[in-house]
Amino acid sequence: MRNQVPLDISVIPLRPAPARRAVAPPAPAPVPAAPAPKEPLWRDLVGDVLRRERLAQERTLKDVADTARISMPYLSEVERGRKEASSEVLAAAAQALGLGLGDLLTRAQGELVRLTSRRAPAGRSTPRASYDGLCLAA
C-alpha cells in the first residue's frame, strides 16, 4: 500500500522564526568631511618644473634625455613624479634644460610655497614666519 500524507500537516521549525519588524527607511548617510589635502611630494614638484621647462622650450623628451645622458623612460618617470631622482640625475636634467640645480630646486620650492600657502591649516593661530630659503635634509 501506498502511504498517503494528509494535506493538513504543518512543518514545525527547529528555531522560531524571527519576529518581523516594521522596516524603517535607512537613515541618510552622514556627509563625510572633505579629507585634508595631502602635502605635495617633492618628486612631483621637481618633475612638474622639469616638464614645464622642457615644454616651454618646445623640446622633446628624447632630446632632453639624450643631452642629459639619462634614459628617456627614466626621465619620463621623473617628470611624472614616479621616481625619486638622485641629485646627479636632477643636475643633469636641469643642465640639459639650461638651468642649474639651484634654479631647478628654487622653482620647485616656489611651487611648494605657492601650493601650501593656499591651504593654511584651520585652528593655527600663531602666524608662520616667512622663510625664503631652501632646506633639504636626508
From TrEMBL:
<dbReference type="InterPro" id="IPR010982">
    <property type="entry name" value="Lambda_DNA-bd_dom_sf"/>
</dbReference>
<dbReference type="InterPro" id="IPR001387">
    <property type="entry name" value="Cro/C1-type_HTH"/>
</dbReference>
<feature type="compositionally biased region" description="Pro residues">
    <location>
        <begin position="25"/>
        <end position="38"/>
    </location>
</feature>
<feature type="region of interest" description="Disordered">
    <location>
        <begin position="19"/>
        <end position="38"/>
    </location>
</feature>
<protein>
    <submittedName>
        <fullName>Helix-turn-helix transcriptional regulator</fullName>
    </submittedName>
</protein>
<feature type="domain" description="HTH cro/C1-type">
    <location>
        <begin position="50"/>
        <end position="104"/>
    </location>
</feature>
<dbReference type="Pfam" id="PF01381">
    <property type="entry name" value="HTH_3"/>
</dbReference>
